[in-house]
Design brief:
single chain; mainly alpha; Four Helix Bundle (Hemerythrin (Met), subunit A); 4 helices; about 0% strand; zinc ion binding
């Protein structure tokens, strides 16, 4: 097992240091793990809330409103479940030394983009090209 990389509390990856060095990789690993933990905590809260709030509501409109709220909450949790899979994939890429590089071009993804979207797998330019192609094919 490798030694833990020291990371100051106020550390932010900078363009003037080698791309995806140990400190940057550790920064993004911690960011991804914290994000994943937040999502899992929200999911636990949702499950507890659904178990506690199971009750028979006599008014049809109130019952319909509560069912709509539950469906929306469950849809949100499903999207977050998919997000957790993407976070796990990003963590795997960190472990394999592939994190931060565009899967299309192989070029580094900008640190600003990774900070804003740590699960990004494409550079901004490659993502824009992908979305334009997707839009063209969708309009057919």
């Amino acid at each position: 097992m490798k030694a833990e990389t020291f990371l100051p509390e106020d550390y932010r990856p900078a363009e003037d240091e080698p791309f995806m060095n140990e400190r940057q990789a550790e920064y993004f690993r911690r960011k991804l793990l914290a994000w994943k933990e937040d999502i899992l905590e929200d999911s636990r809260d949702t499950v507890e809330g659904l178990q506690e709030n199971t009750r028979n509501i006599p008014d049809v409109a109130d019952r319909a409103s509560e069912e709509t709220d539950r469906a929306l909450e469950l849809r949100t949790r499903d999207r977050q479940r998919k997000l957790v899979a993407k976070i796990d994939s990003a963590l795997r890429r960190i472990d394999e030394g592939e994190y931060g590089y565009c899967e299309v071009t192989g070029e580094p993804i900008s640190l600003k983009r990774l900070d804003a979207r740590p699960i990004a797998t494409m550079s901004l330019e490659a993502q824009e090209r992908h979305e334009r192609r997707e839009k063209v094919h969708r309009d057919d």
